[in-house]
Amino acid sequence: MDTDGEAGGPVAAGTAEGQLLLGVTTLLLGVLTAFRAGRLAGLLRAVRHAVTTGGECVRVEPPARRCTGAARHWFAFRTATGEVVEFEDFSPYPMSSGTPVTVRYRPEDPRGSASVAGTCGRSPVLRGAVAAAGCALVTAGSAALFLTGLP
Questions:
Q1: Residues spanned by the domain of 66
Q2: Per the confidence metrics, is the pTM higher than 0.70?
Q3: Phi-psi region for residue 8, left (φ > 0), alpha (ψ -120 to 50) or beta?
Q4: C-alpha Rg value of the chain to the nearest Å
């Protein structure tokens, strides 16, 4: 029952707030999807035009929260021109500082394109594709809810 005498008074306000929240969530998910797609495009370029070199894990930080359980890993390598580049990347298994890895990068952008090549038999391109596809699916679902007017 409507207590203020107007048709759809309190319900409409709740729906509008729900739509706003869903709209903002959809927008943020879209930005995340675009970021992931850009990262995937960079990885694909890196694979096609990549230089492969040896590197090593230089730093491991414990997870920020216990529930995630994922430690942060930093790796370093030396480019063909002698520049030392450090970058953060995913490691599906525990590794310590000093663990040797194979690094793949584009010579024109070593800092922005570096990734650990095939860590533990998993392709970084496959990881990127799964992440981008997952983000795209969640964004599409959120957009569908937003466009159909469901709170």
A1: 40-148
A2: no
A3: left
A4: 22
CB distance 51 to 78 below 8 Å: no
User: What is the C-alpha separation between 115 and 128, in angstroms, rounded?
Assistant: 11
User: What's the burial of 60, exposed, middle or buried (CB within 10 Å: 0-12/13-18/19+)?
Assistant: middle
Q: What H or E segment, with its residue span, contains residue 125? A: helix 124-148
Average per-residue pLDDT for the chain:
77
Tally the domains of the chain: 1
pLDDT digits (tens, 9 = 90+) for 83-94: 999 999 877 677
CA–CA gap between residue 151 and residue 137 (Å, rounded): 19
Judge whether 101 and 75 are in contact, CB under 8 Å: yes
Percent of all residues in the chain with a pLDDT value above 70, rounded to a whole number: 79
Within-domain flag for 106: yes
Q: Which helix (H) or strand (E) holds 12?
A: helix 9-48
- Is the residue at 25 inside a domain? no
DSSP state of 82: S
